Amino acid sequence: MSFSQSESLSISLPSSTASLSVSTATTTSVPSVYCSRGNKKTERGKRFNHSYGNARPRNKNKGRGPASVLVPP
């Protein structure tokens, strides 16, 4: 019985070190693309980056072009 406990202990130690190495590898300062926040061409990306542009104009009447009209099928 003590042999099986030491065996499970030896198995759990490498898995804990592996999880530590994975967690340190995943800690990046800026996510690459997370729910289009990193995409600077979308309005959500502009809001996340605190910038303005064609996708997020300061004046909401500018920059988006004419409103699209829905055509019934």
From TrEMBL:
Which keywords label this protein?
A: Ribonucleoprotein, Ribosomal protein
One Pfam family of this chain: RPS31
Which parts of this chain are annotated as the region Disordered? 1-73
- Point to the regions of Low complexity compositional bias: 1-33
Any one GO biological process:
plastid translation
Q: Does the keyword Ribonucleoprotein apply?
A: yes
A GO cellular-component term linked to this record: ribosome
Return the similarity comment.
Belongs to the bacterial ribosomal protein bTHX family.
| Protein name per the record | 30S ribosomal protein S31 chloroplastic isoform X1
What organism is this sequence from? Answer: Prunus yedoensis var. nudiflora
